């Protein structure tokens, strides 16, 4: 069995043998797989790597800043930060259907990424953070063994349009190995063990039409939930936890007046494979703190609910 240090050594050698002195482009999302890919490629080929980080306006609070601090400022990786919030939000205007939202977000991502790629001269390689389970999953869906329930946009799509050769240094690794080599490469524990975040981001956590003010409220609520999960030491005892924005108005009383404001649902699950999941039995005290903080700190929210549905039949995401 190989140690993380040996896996890193071997991967670095393979990357160098493969790309030589060519330039490599990587879409950095801030998730575990693309972050570890970035750290590994940077260790192997330094300045030959350029990362593109697309801010679609549907990220968690301060995510763009965190990615830039970590990779560009701390590690010295070349990262282009493209703020495309307006473009994504204007495309999503009036769109209600979840799969249509996913498709639009995915296509807009490819469009923005392509434009950035075109500004970098002489790139030959596209790096992707594909890991072994992704390879198996896409092989199964090609052969029709598995039903593709949702269109996950973060695998595939890019190479065809870009005519770049692919380098996928994590292709033979399982998630736990990817995490271990992330730590070995010096990435912080909280980054390497963070919960998964869907490619379409908050776009599928705002039910129905996506609007900027909804996304702003949801970001605040989500940040409060995650902060309290960490403070109560529950974050790493859940597999995924997040807030969902419900665009319905429910009544609240402020002073003598009745006010009709939006609802936030909290979702936290425990799972091994994300195919089935149990809702997390969070302590009431934690839920109480989160609920009162969300209602008191976020204007526009008057009610918080906790999702007690397991998967199946309920999915983890609400859309
Ligand atoms: P569901 O909601 O299907 O989610 O129970 C299972 C896991 O997949 C994630 N998910 C997505 N990831 N693009 C992604 O990259 C998507 O469109 C998407 N939809 C769901 C979800 O967050 C959970 O981890």
UniProtKB/TrEMBL annotation:
GO terms for molecular function: ATP binding; GMP synthase activity. Residues 2-194 form the GMPS ATP-PPase domain. The lineage of its organism: Bacteria, Pseudomonadati, Pseudomonadota, Gammaproteobacteria, Oceanospirillales. ATP binds at residues 29-35. It catalyses: XMP + L-glutamine + ATP + H2O = GMP + L-glutamate + AMP + diphosphate + 2 H(+). Keywords: ATP-binding, Glutamine amidotransferase, GMP biosynthesis, Ligase, Nucleotide-binding, Purine biosynthesis. Pathway: Purine metabolism; GMP biosynthesis; GMP from XMP (L-Gln route): step 1/1. Catalyzes the synthesis of GMP from XMP. Homodimer. This is GMP synthase [glutamine-hydrolyzing].
């Amino acid at each position: 069995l190989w140690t993380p240090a040996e896996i890193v050594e071997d991967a670095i050698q393979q990357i160098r043998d493969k790309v030589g002195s060519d330039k490599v482009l990587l879409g950095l999302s801030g998730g575990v797989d693309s972050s570890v890919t970035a750290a590994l490629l940077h260790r192997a080929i330094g300045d030959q790597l350029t990362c593109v980080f697309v801010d679609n306006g549907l990220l968690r609070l301060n995510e763009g800043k965190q990615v830039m601090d970590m990779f560009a400022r701390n590690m010295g990786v070349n990262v282009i930060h493209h703020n495309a919030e307006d473009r994504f939000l204007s495309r999503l205007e009036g769109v209600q259907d979840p799969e249509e939202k996913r498709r639009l977000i995915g296509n807009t991502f490819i469009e923005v990424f392509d434009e950035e790629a075109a500004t970098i001269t002489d790139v030959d390689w596209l790096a992707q953070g594909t890991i072994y389970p992704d390879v198996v999953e896409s092989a199964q869906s090609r052969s029709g063994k598995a039903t593709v329930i949702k269109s996950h946009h973060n695998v595939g799509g890019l190479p065809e349009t870009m005519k770049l050769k692919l380098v996928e240094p994590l292709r033979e690794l399982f998630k736990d190995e990817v995490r271990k080599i992330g730590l070995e490469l010096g990435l912080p524990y909280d980054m390497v063990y963070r919960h998964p975040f869907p490619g379409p981001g908050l776009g599928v956590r705002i039910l129905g039409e996506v609007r900027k003010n909804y996304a702003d409220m949801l970001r605040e609520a989500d940040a409060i939930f995650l902060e309290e999960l960490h403070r109560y030491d529950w974050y790493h005892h859940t597999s995924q936890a997040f807030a969902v924005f419900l665009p319905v108005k429910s009544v609240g009383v402020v002073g003598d007046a009745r006010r009709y404001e939006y609802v936030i649902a909290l979702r936290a699950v425990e799972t091994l494979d994300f195919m089935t999941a149990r809702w997390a039995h969070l302590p009431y005290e934690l839920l109480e703190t989160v609920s009162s903080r969300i209602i008191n700190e976020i204007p526009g929210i008057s009610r918080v609910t906790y999702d007690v549905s397991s998967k199946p039949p309920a999915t983890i995401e609400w859309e």
